[in-house]
């Protein structure tokens, strides 16, 4: 199950599988790829688009699984209510993970407060537009999960790709399901090395960019 924003003609998740796509694009091609080159280092992740919290939760589970710490910052200008998240019934997909923390309990974590929920995972959720976000610290990985360029073109403009570049440490990664040509060019013009990768089910390609 997922939600649809009719005003944008956009679903929150791929209809080919929300868990599958989120794990493939962001955890496997993002976090796991980074940890292969940075073993035993804490990964500072910035997520654009908390949404239902699925990517945050998957990252939490993966951090514990491979014993690699994550310091996670997630941005969301329009948080869903707890009731809306519960209606998705995502806990059914994580029955073996309930000894750590259930998806529903994870979803109930308060906003604007830093939480250390395991030895390997710290998170703060911020109710803010990406355009307004400022940070003194740099990040190692950006999960760029805005709605598609056809729905929210302002979030895929070159100036925001440049902002992403400025927020990353050298060697940092930017990953997204989006493989649109204009986005690739915007990333390259910002200084990134850009790689087109095979996409998750239902998508031919995805992007991973590296700040050299």
Write up this protein:
The chain is α/β, with parallel strands linked by helices. It has a single domain (4-210), classed as 3-Layer(aba) Sandwich (Rossmann fold). The protein is 30% helix and 25% strand. The strands form 2 sheets. An 8-stranded mixed β-sheet has the order 5-6-4-3-7-8-10-9. It has a two-stranded antiparallel sheet with strand order 1-2. β3, α2 and β4 form a beta-alpha-beta unit. α1 (18-37) packs across α2 (54-66) and α5 packs across α6. The protein is globular and about 45 Å long.
**Average predicted local confidence, pLDDT:** 90
What is the count of structural domains?
1
> What is the CATH domain class?
Alpha Beta
Q: What pattern of helices and strands is seen along the backbone?
A: EEHEHEHHEEEHEHEE
> Which runs of at least 5 residues are low in confidence (pLDDT < 50)?
none
CA-CA gap between termini = 39 Å
Rg, alpha carbons: 16 Å
Largest sheet: 8 strands, mixed
Judging from the principal axes of the Cα atoms, what is the shape?
A: globular
Let me know the CATH homologous superfamily. Vaccinia Virus protein VP39
Beta-strand residue fraction: 25-35%
Q: Helicity, in percent?
A: 25-40%
The CATH topology assignment is Rossmann fold
The SS-based structural class is: alpha/beta
Strand adjacency order, main sheet: 5-6-4-3-7-8-10-9
Architecture, CATH level 2?
A: 3-Layer(aba) Sandwich
- Number of distinct beta strands: 10
How many H/I helices? 6
């Amino acid at each position: 199950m997922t939600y649809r924003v009719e005003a944008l003609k956009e679903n929150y998740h791929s209809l080919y599988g929300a868990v599958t796509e989120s794990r493939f694009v962001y955890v496997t091609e993002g976090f796991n790829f980074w940890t292969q080159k940075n073993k035993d280092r804490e990964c500072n992740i910035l997520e654009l688009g908390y949404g239902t919290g699925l990517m945050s939760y998957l990252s939490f589970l993966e951090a514990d699984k491979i014993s690699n710490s994550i310091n996670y910052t997630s941005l969301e200008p329009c948080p869903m209510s707890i009731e809306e998240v519960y209606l998705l019934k995502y806990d059914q997909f994580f029955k073996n993970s309930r000894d750590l923390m259930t998806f529903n309990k994870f979803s109930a974590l308060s906003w604007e407060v830093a939480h250390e929920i395991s030895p390997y995972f710290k998170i703060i959720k911020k109710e803010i537009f990406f355009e307004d976000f400022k940070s003194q610290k740099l990040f190692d990985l950006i999960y760029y999960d805005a709605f598609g360029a056809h729905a929210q073109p302002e979030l895929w403009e070159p100036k925001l790709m440049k902002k992403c570049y400025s927020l990353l440490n050298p060697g940092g990664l930017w990953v997204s399901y989006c493989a649109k040509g204009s986005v690739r060019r915007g990333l390259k013009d910002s200084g990134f090395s850009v790689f087109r990768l095979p996409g998750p089910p239902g998508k031919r390609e995805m992007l991973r960019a590296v700040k050299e």
